[in-house]
Amino acid sequence: MRKSVSHSEDDLVFLDEAVPPSDNNTLGASKDVWQVMIIDDDADVHSATTFALSNVEIQNRPLSFLHAYSAQQARDILANEPDVAVILLDVVMEQQDEGLQLVHYIRDVLHRAEVRIILRTGQPGYAPEIDAIQQFDINDYKTKSELTRIKLYTVVTAAIRSYEQICTINSSSRGLDMILRASTELMALQTLEEFTSGVLRQIARILDVPPSGIFCIRETLQNQETELFVVAATGKYQNLLNFPVSTFEDAQIGNTLSRALNERRNIYGREFSALHFSGTASSNFAAFFRTDRPLNEIDLRLLEVFCSNISVGLANIMLVTSLHNSAFYDSLTKLPNRTRLKEIIDDNLISTIDKPTTLALIDIDHFAETNDTLGHQFGDMLLLSVASRLQSRLGDRLIVARVGGDTFGVMGDDIQVNPAAVLAQFERPFSIDGQDVQLSATVGLVRLSEHDGRGVEALKNAHIALKRAKLQQRTGYLYFSRSMGIDIRERVNMMHALRAAFEEKRLFVVYQPQIDMVTRAPVGAEALLRWQTEDKTMISPSRFIPIAEYSGLIIELGEWVLRQACQELVRIQRLGYPNFMMSVNVSQVQFRHPHFLSMLRKALEDTNAPPHCIELEITESMAMEEPDALIKLLDQITETGVSIAIDDFGTGFSSLSHLQKLSVDRLKIDRAFVTEITDSSRGSSIAEMIIQLGRNLDLDVIAEGVEDERQAKILTELGCPYGQGYLFAKPLHSDVLHDWLRTHQAN
């Protein structure tokens, strides 16, 4: 684990006012300086780099800068300048791969193997292929933003030292050839274990001694102490692989390695060497090697060069490992993530076609509430405990992954991965910090033997089954069936069609009149949203409203309907109906939106609709949820002058004490009770009870779905003041509603 480093005054910032580049492009510069060539099409980069490295001396020699602003200019300079030590090269110049083409020219056309090349880019998302870095012997690769002054100095210093060492031992072609060959071979290795084992073998080859040593990495433990672990071992030490160095009988090994790391240099003994690998990404690596003889000057120089080169390889390996882990494994539990699980499923579908295998997605119920109540650190420990139990208790040869925040995936044979076995893991509480926490879970399962798609489709189907299981019952499970997939596709198609219809203005609002049951005079109307497709098919609101709520489109739709209703109310009142009321349905998704109240106020202000003539209808189930928050919101709505009606009243389980606390103005008798109404029926009794309740609570009551005179007569006798239904009028378009009102006014 590495601690993050904050940057402040050492940041290398490319400023307009930076010192302009010195005119150091004179060919054949003095060999008493290190020539550093900057190749970049951005003049500010040249300025900032020379400014950052001004007055710097390395090995008692100052730096001299050569400037090229294009690839061609760089070729011209390099063709005549043999003593360039380091090249700072922009990867992307005239073309996307211009930098790599230039590297190819330097290495393969000019055959300049000694010059050290550091790639830079201003595009954080762009990185050359690892193969290119390996092929062209590139020293380092950095984004310009991460090259602070200190880091730039460190990178250039390491590169110059590497250059000097290469030049010094050029006379020893055998050693140089061996190092280059070793570097090339090592760069082809992809894993840390392969790479470090290869380093030990190459050291033995360079020194011409038997391979006997260990390669270690220093890691930070949970108690913040550090420990060296063996990641590669050869010869007499091969049985120490994966052991901590602190457990060795020979304490000299650990002491020497710690000294090399702390002093950041190689330590040479009469019969051993402890090698330190420089550079930020590889500074936690060290190797102990048994030489059984003192090393000569050439050996020492070869090792110094080799270690310098290998540091780049280590950095690349660590980068690749880090990227691989980030891409395919969960950072908390270290389990495979969703991406990796998809690959595993794909491999399974190919290799075990006839083997009955099940994929289960396990979602922890109410985990968000637990996380919010007990804290995220407690929640992380809880997730780790769940992961551990799933791995250890469900059986061997299972794949356990974390595919979401509180969702785990388990894949294995049908016998091990079954609902009973999975849910049994949540029967016992989880002990976290001495506290027992009882969890429950919901499971969606897919039998892969019945699945004919790829891993991504299998995961999608498991999610569909999981969502269905959550809708039907908590602590339950469902297996995916093909009918589920068909339903989901139909919902998705309708969702896209609904959005397109809204954008193309194919949705419209109709208005169903509400009347006084005694006088039969119109007193208001309810605004209702309708959808007619291009082929004139009417889509029922019971089908598309839930989809609008699920997709979030209901927020835009609801505001549009409210504004349409307000504008229509203003028109009707201008026709001579000053007390006409307009009712508008509000969905639960709208009501819970944080900006609902401000949206309501803005709609009233923009349309000049009188608030006291606007009524919002909410369902009885909405009225019973989150009572404290609802009471506050209803009070705020009442302050605007808008009234509230409870729709479908009688279908839920309202608490009368709670109902008394709500700022509600009217109860709406559900059409189911109106349809069943007779002199002695249950519907009549419920309708009578609601009417009496409204009278006792000083609330208006309106019955919806009134379709014949008998229903109207009974409701009137029961004392219901208002009604709405086909007996009086169907939902009408705006112009038809105006004509209907004029007719009723004349009558």
TrEMBL record:
Residues 35-159 form the Response regulatory domain. InterPro entries: CheY-like_superfamily, Cyclic-di-GMP_PDE-like, DUF3369, EAL_dom, EAL_sf, GGDEF_dom, Nucleotide_cyclase, Rev_trsase/Diguanyl_cyclase. The keyword Kinase does not apply. Residues 355-482 form the GGDEF domain. It holds the Pfam family EAL. Residues 491-745 form the EAL domain. PANTHER family: CYCLIC DI-GMP PHOSPHODIESTERASE PDEF, SIGNALING PROTEIN YKOW. NCBIfam families: GGDEF (TIGR00254). This is EAL domain-containing protein. It comes from Herminiimonas aquatilis.
